[in-house]
Amino acid sequence: MITDNVQEFADGENANFESVFVLSDFDSAAYSYLYKRENRVVGPPVVLYCATKGEPLQFSCRPLYCTTMLNLSLCFTGFRNKEEMKNLVNLVHHMGGTIRKDFSTKVTHLIAYSTRGEKYRLAVCMGTPILTPSWIHKAWERRDDVLFHAGDEAFRTEFKVPPFQDCVLSFLGFSEEEKSNMEERTLKHGGRHLEVGDERCTHMVVEENSVKELPFSSSNNIFIVKQEWFWGSIQMDARAGESIYLYEKPNDSPAMKKAVSLLSLTTPNSNRKRRRLRDTLAQLTKETEISPFPPPRKRPSAEHSIGSLLDISNTPETFILTKSSKPSKSSTPAHSKQSARWQVSKELYQTESNYVDILSTVLQLFKLPLEKEGQVGGPILAQEEMKTIFGSIPDIYDVHTRIKSDLEDLLRDWTENRSVGNVFLKYSKELVRAYPPFVNFFEMSKETIVRCEKSKPRFHAFLKINQAKPECGRQTLVELLIRPVQRLPSVALLLSDIKKHTSDDNPDKITLEKAIESLKEVMTHINEDKRKTEGQKQIFDVVYEVDGCPANLLSSHRSLVYRVETIALGDQPCDRGENVTLFLFNDCLEIARKRHKVINTFKSPLGQTRPPPPLKHITLMPLSQIRRVLDLQDTDDCVNAFALVVRPPTEQENLLFSFQLAAEETVKNTWLRTLCRHVANTICRADAEDLIQCTDPDSLQVSTKDMDSTLSKASRAIKKTSKKVTSCRQSALLFLSPAVTFTHHNLPTC
Questions:
Q1: What would the pLDDT profile of 657-686 be if each residue is shown by its tens digit?
Q2: 580 in helix, strand or coil?
Q3: In what order do the strands lie in the sheet with 109-112?
Q4: Are 707 and 662 a contacting pair, CB within 8 Å?
């Protein structure tokens, strides 16, 4: 029945039926009258809902206007205005929801005014949606929509509590570009930002890899956190707990401290200086010498052979300084020097091991977490995007894990006749199946990463978190995924090097040739349009510019990265004071010096004159031979200099190549970082930054003093002339009759 006077029915009692009042206005005097007398009151949407569902009228001990929040259980946190909270609780009850005082697993939504407190932390851990009070008000505005439900994800998403609500952030140690990006995202996710040191800041986000000291003493009123906290909050779409992300001052590794202490020690005795220099180079390169197997077994007599003062062991924790001693007369002569074939084979294993570690990082740090079910906030990427980005990486990882294991077994029981080539022939078919699908679609993979990073803030935050971890070595996911593109050409180069050091009567020589051919077959399956014609043109230019440049510099996978003009500061790889040009390629370093004198010009077959090459080839060095890059500190006697600690496979000792940058436009820091990045890529290491060591030039006996003086130039000219005279004298002796007697001053001059 319909009535305008509820009082005539509200006070009546009937044992046969219950009176249910349907009111369209829960703010009217009639509602207040019925509510005080505890009459059962519902709104029109409840009647329509039950009629649509064919269900009996919903029972509720409280007035029920609609079913907008039916089956929802809410909890409140951070409210200080009791009147506001009371109003919100009434609205929730009117829409069919329930309220719980304490947070538990039964709570479906947390209504928060603050990102602080235990309830907020529990909701984040349990993945419970955390919403603003506006969600309740907006749901009440749609109370007459019978089919609407406030729990619909599409509706409640816009009412999420942003992760940085109530947070005022400052940023320390970031580049201007990165800082601007983070400040923009702070505003986008509900926070504010101020400059470092402002007392209103609640958080200071620190770039832990570049900040060594804080500009002020820490305070209890501010959280000093690593950047992972910032990106983790965005990825979760909720403020992360600060306790596990607190910034701590980095400690220098004991090994580096020891290296620095060695660098600081000098002695006037030249022999001691030489030994000290060798010790220093050994310590600086020690951390890069990691191998799980011992060197080839030697006869007992070899242990008493004359050893080098510098002997780097194959364990990552120790290095041994052996004193020279004469071999026993009764001992059998033996070479203590490890064979070049073994050295390059060990290098192949080490790069393979590093490569497998990088593939494992891609899978464990990126692919598996993105595939994990039950992610807070739902899946970060769609399945199609996952497949496009990672492709056949699991297959590549599987085959290289087995190759690594076989190489390790081979080197543990090494003899010169063990076949390295067979290892790669064994897996050639699997390599053909695994590589082309990934390499051919790498550009699409890269484009997908870039697009998703721009359009999906949670994916951008996910990348920022994981790319900052040590396993990534500050490399992006794209940079890690390019390793499979580079790996096979690098392996082919190392196998060619092993073949070069393999005797003709060794059966592995033919096997290595077959293995190299099998890798070339894999690479032929890769689209030819991946070749960079411009990069090839640059290599041809280098070949024409450098007299004596090795023909094997020309390779389809190789590209020129950097050209640097320098002056040699030591006696390696050429005389001090020589003008040296360094050509950095993606996998090797061509070192050439300026020619002393151009004798003639070259003519082409057509008779056209071509200018002679201005440079003379010194050496083409694989980047894998560079053990450490030394950034020499500027002093009064040494300016704008750097050095390379090099270990060729034919050498038992480290060599030091030191240079001074000659061109003012070359930025030393940029050049050294680029060099280290490509060295790391070549040896499949992620920690490119660890290859750089800032060093005192005095400890390495390196100086740029008087490099431009007239006396210095004259001294170098005399040295060059002396070498030419010596060469001419040796040539003259070849034409003298054995019966002729001569004295030193009778030799012809040149």
A1: 999 998 878 888 889 999 998 998 888 887
A2: strand
A3: 98-99, 73-77, 109-112, 130-131
A4: no
Helix spans in 158-295 (H): 176-188, 227-236, 254-263, 270-286
User: Residue 112 pairs with which residues in a beta bridge?
Assistant: 77
Taking the C-alpha atoms of residue 173 and residue 247, their distance in angstroms, rounded to an integer, is 12
Q: Give the C-alpha distances (Å, rounded to integers) separating 501 from 497, 513, 550.
A: 7, 13, 17
Q: Tell me which amino acid residue 655 is.
A: L
pLDDT at 457: 87
Task: Look at 113 and 187; give whichever has higher pLDDT.
Answer: 187
The CA distance from 447 to 449, in Å, is 5
Q: What is the rounded CA–CA span in Å between residue 673 and residue 690?
A: 10
- Matching residue, tokens 């721009």: 454
Contacts of 104 (CB under 8 A, 6+ apart): none
pTM for the full predicted model: 0.53
Tokens 């500061």 — which residue?
Answer: 569
pLDDT at 664: 79
Name 210's Cβ contacts closer than 8 Å, sequence gap at least 6.
173, 174
What would the DSSP string read from start to end of 478-516?
Answer: HHHHTHHHHHHHHHHHHHHHHHHTS-TT-THHHHHHHHH
Distance between CA atoms of 451 and 619, rounded to whole angstroms? Answer: 43
Strand partners, 128: none
- Report residue 351 as tokens: 């790069």
Cβ atoms < 10 Å from Cβ of 709: 10
Helix (H, G, I), strand (E, B) or coil at 627: strand
The per-residue pLDDT for range 317-337, each reduced to its tens digit, is 333 323 333 333 333 333 334
Indicate left, alpha or beta for 631 from its phi (over 0: left) and psi (-120 to 50: alpha): beta
